[in-house]
Every structure is written in C-alpha cells, then in structure tokens.
Amino acid sequence: FDIEKDRYDKESIELLRRQGIDLTRNKKKGIYSRDFGMMFLISGLGFSELTWVTFHSAYDFGFLLKILTQNPLPPDLKSFMRHMTSYFGCRIFDIKYNFKIFNLHGGLEKVAKALNVARVAGLSHQAGSDSLLILHCFMRIKNMKAFKQCNQNLPALALYGLV
C-alpha cells in the first residue's frame, strides 16, 4: 500500500496510525507486493486445502487477490468468487457473516466481549492480535451449545458484505 498513490479512507488511515502503523516506514522498509505474492504462493498458502478464518474480510481478500494476480480485481462477483476458490479453496469462514446465525452484531471487539473472549496479545487493528482474537471467537462459536443442538454447519465462502 502506498499512501501517496493508492486510494484510501482517511478515517481508516488515522485509525491505523493511532494503533502504531507507520505507513512511511512500511513503504521504505516493507516488502514489495509482487515479492510477497510470490512468497505466499511458494509457501503453500495458496492453492491449498487450508481453512481460513476471517472477520469482515471481503476487502482483505480483494487486496490479496490483486497482489497474487498482479491484476485488477475480476469485474463481477461470480468471477471474484471463482478466483477466491481457485486461490484459497472453499473453506473460508468470515465470522462476521457467521455471527448473524447467533444474533451477534457489531465489530470484533464488541462480539468478542459478548462471547466472553478476551484479547490475549497485542492491540486491536494489528494483524496478529486480531487474527488470534478472530480464531478464539470462531472456536467459541463452534463449541456453543446452540450450535451443536441445531447441528448447523457454519457456511463457508460467505463473505460479509458480498452475500
């Protein structure tokens, strides 16, 4: 991401800065997106049978697809979802979408609090810390009595905001 070239939401950038993200330093010392994409694919993360657990991730996956393909996003939702399954498989759980099943609403912090799941490391809006909190929320939902009673599988590949 290049703050001097790429479009962005001013409030989102301010939030990242308040959380300690230094975009200027990242531009100077970060990795080029093409190199990241190549390493992502070489590592085995792409084209695999992994299970992806996310929160409100449509934009994140869109950004990642642009990096991996080095092309603009597909022109329509059907093509986008075809790319998603090609690169990431069919096991993508966007828990913000899945929260609706349990009548949970709001941002990650609010829902984690409702589920009695504590952040165990880092700050909010930091990738590693948020990822761990997302996983813990997902595991809490999977272990809920209501989930087990209705024997309902969480829908995979249903990204919040796209379906």
UniProtKB/TrEMBL annotation:
Transmembrane segments: 36-55
Organism: Gossypium harknessii
SUPFAM superfamilies with a match to the protein in the record: Ribonuclease H-like (SSF53098)
InterPro entries: CNOT7/CNOT8/Pop2 (IPR039637), RNaseH-like_sf (IPR012337), RNaseH_sf (IPR036397)
Protein name (Swiss-Prot/TrEMBL): Uncharacterized protein
UniProt cross-references to PANTHER family, sorted A to Z: CCR4-NOT TRANSCRIPTION COMPLEX SUBUNIT
GO terms for cellular component: CCR4-NOT complex
GO molecular-function term, one example from the UniProt record: poly(A)-specific ribonuclease activity
Organism superkingdom: Eukaryota
Keyword 4Fe-4S carried by entry: no
Keywords: Membrane, Transmembrane, Transmembrane helix
